[in-house]
Here is the input.
Amino acid sequence: MDFSLLVIQTLNGLQLGLLLFLVASGLTLVFGILDFVNLAHGSLYMLGAFFCATLTYAFGNFLLAVIVSLPIVAILGLVLERVLARPLYMRDHLDHVLGTFGAILVIDTLVHLIWGPEGIQVPLPDWLQGQVPLGGDVIVPTFRLLIIGSGLGAAGLLFWLVNYTRLGMLIRTGASNRTMVSALGINIEMLFALVFALGAALAGLAGMLIAPITEAAIGMGNNIIITAFVVIIVGGIGSMKGAFIAALMIGLIDTLGRSFLDDIFKLAMSTEAAETSAPAVSAMLIYIIMAAVLAVRPQGLFPPKVR
Amino acid sequence: MKRIASLALAATMLTAPAHAEAVKIGFVTTLTTGAAVIGKEMENAVNLAMEHLGGMAGDTKLEVIFADDQFAPDVGKQVTDKLVKQDDVDFVTGFIWSHVLLASRKSALDGGKFLISANAGPSQIAGKLCDKNFFSTSWQNDQTPMAMGEVLNQQGVKSLYIMAPNYAAGKNMVAGVERTFKGEVKGKDLTKWGADAQLDFSAELAKAKASGADGLFVFYPGAAGGAFIKQYHQAGLKDVIPLYTVFTVDGLSIPRLQAADFESVLGSRSTGHWDPSLDNAANQKFVADFKAQFGTYPSNYAAQSYDAIMLIASAVKATGGDMSDMDAVRAALMAADYDSVRGDYTYGSNHFPVQDFYLREVVADADGTWTTKVVATVFEDHVDSYASECKLD
Here is the structure.
């Protein structure tokens, strides 16, 4: 196994992990603080991609489209919170699942009606199309570096927001003991709405960043939402730090598994058997990790402190 | 007065045809998920075929019922069951996906219906699982990549890296190219497929590059194709490891790559049994009318679906709409006596077409619209590799 390939695959894993973090952070906030299971979180990821795609064609500029799409998706998050989530807060989790699953179907169909069944390709400006040499054989597409950069940036911003601002303090206390927060006279409805919108914007950003690599497509959110749930379960529900570490871990395990598992299997079995079993096992790998975590530490690796 | 007139008209319409019984065609395709792009294209082509036929095969009325397989084998089987038992169709056709066709085939065939694949051509159905009531208007999965393997040999490619989705057709495509390609296969990746398919190929592309192979062979149908091409170019691999594709750079992905201004796809080569540039009257009419109605060049999915309806219509017409005599209908299907958009072809012993395969290149047409054109003929009257395993009667 050569070293530069390992470096490239690690960067690829990092990129996937950061995208997962953007989706999972919103999910863990909403689940942890609002105690609300939001399956439709992936739909916001998809909507981010579609708005960004349309605006990229309208403005002729990808970055401008991202900047304009972010508040749009946040507002859509607010609408979703007001219309769907708020009436369901007091119900149990099964009702949340049913309600938000319905929302997925409705939003998928709306997108189908508005944008048609075919996905939209998102063109990138020339300066993002190229590659950056990072020494030796390590050459990485510029846009993937941008994803890593903005993922880390968003993570940093979120870290600052949660740990060093008043809003962040409320969010943290909300995650630990929300009865106490409302007892202290904090407008909990407003806080919930803000958290929901923040989560929506983060998921939307992830969708905008992935769209130029794959495309804006119906159902794209349903793929990532499952993995995002794996991330928050492994990391500990409600924990931002847990979501970050688990997302990077899952991203790296998934990418490195896809890259090197067949070579590792070839040491132990025939080439043919390795080639058939490696893709199957690497697709299962993250779920195996989740099962192991659930068995050993059901509360997740970094659960928030709850009294 | 007007109402009476229309009532009278309706009454005559109800009584007029001697063969009042319509022949029903169930069309199973993907109308939801990202793969709906393909399903929509097939639906358009079927509607165009019905329009060209005037909804009639001879004196018999044709009726098409569409069903959505949701890109999942279990759902495909369910909707096939519904078409067979509830709608009591005479033909079940469509089927983009090999795994969906494999799951649904028993429902259609045991139900005493004709099963006509308009796309999927899994090796099993060409070989051991072949059936007298199954026909294909496409190809056996291995054939198109076999033609590509031959092209690679001719171009002096010595080593190859292979990528395909991990499902029935993906495995057939890999087997096909490996059968004819004489050089060394340096590595192979089968990626996750289905409604939650893997669409980010960063890890696999890095491996392909590191393998130092002379060429990269891929099969990524539908939306995954566009995603793959973009990432391949974003990774700067165009001059490092040249790309050879089947069913990836096609009538579906090309317009969208053009919309995103992806010029490097021009000149890209793939193999296929059909092309919009094929010079026969049926094809010219099909391509011109498809473009006029839907604004893009048709893809091979459209061509095969159009042919499926035309083949069925030819058989219904030949038997005068009498579906009770299955032997006669089968003989009429076997004759393939219709103007296929690929040109004339015959059916082999396993009911897969014996047909030519072409090498095609992406070019800009006179209006600047990107499309493909035929560069060379790779195989003539090609018989698939599983026909000998099929024992009919």
Summary: The first helix of chain B runs from residue 2 to 15. Chain B has 13 helices and 14 strands. Chain B has two domains: 2-139+279-355, 143-272. Residues 278 and 284 of chain B are 8 Å apart (CA to CA).
